[in-house]
Amino acid sequence: MSRRAVTFTRDQIAAYAEASGDRNPIHLDDDFARSVGLPGVIAHGMLQMGIAATVAAEAAGGPDRLRRLSVRFAGMVLPGDVVTFTAEPAGEGKLEIKAINQRGEAVLTRASAEYAR
Amino acid sequence: MVAVAGRTYPAVQFEIDPDRVTDFARAIGADPAEGVPPTFAAVYSLYATAPQLFADEDAAVDFGRLLHAEQEFEWSRHPRAGETVTSKGRVASDASRRGMRFVSFETETTDADGLPLCTSRALFVIRS
Fold first, then answer.
1. Is B29 on the interface with A (CB under 8 A)?
2. pLDDT tens per residue across span A26-52
């Protein structure tokens, strides 16, 4: 099983916004995020998926082997949250992925990957 | 709002810039030496095409009420930094139920030879 615990930071969220091009202010501007009913800036779901992919790639024996990855975005991730990502074998060429925060809540659900062996 | 299932958008060319790949890899905690991270597909496939849907006046997607609910990528091959790829977006389904609108947006990305690289499937939920 591959596992990685990540403490999300504003800097990491801002770096992902810049590199990905998704500069939606809900990820960058606390005042804006609050104005749309969020507790403050939140991490991109695609940042969570990106980290999950690194864990899946490790379990698969390298990123080039990944053939499919799917997730449902189930919960918000805020700066300071600690999310533990795991990928474990779920049959031939298949992985089950989990992403659980410090309160034991799944932030990604129905998450799975397939890889070339 | 018009349901726009089946609508396709013009192909978008995207050059995979090595510096941007390095920044992206660092942001997700991947090793830049391992090449283009698989989920860089978010950039060359999904983000390259989804703005066409969001700018489509017929589709009338209210971006402020939009939630990215699910995402899937399938890869035939992972591109290398420096490649130019072509992505084409399509509304696979568009349905409203219980006051919510569910838009499934698919993007096919191919390489310079027209061979398949990646299929992105995003499910957007728009609250009314």
1. yes
2. 999 999 999 989 999 999 999 999 999
What are the beta bridge partners of residue B70? A72, B123
Cβ-based contacts of A66 with chain B (< 8 Å): 38, 75, 78
**Terminal alpha carbon distance of chain B:** 11
pTM over 0.90: yes
- ipTM of this model? 0.96
**Closest residue on chain A to B22 (Cα):** A19
Q: Between chains, do A69 and B35 touch, taking CB under 8 Å as contact?
A: no
Which CATH number describes the domain made up of A2-115? 3.10.129.10
B99: number of Cβ within 10 Å: 7
pLDDT in tens, A65-83: 999 999 999 999 999 999 9
Which among A22, A54, A73 has CB closest to B47? A22
Min distance A10 CA to chain B CA atoms (Å): 11
B1 touches B101 (CB < 8 A): yes
Q: Which CATH number is B65's domain given? A: 3.10.129.10
Domain range for B66 is: 12-127
B2 within a domain of the structure (yes/no): no
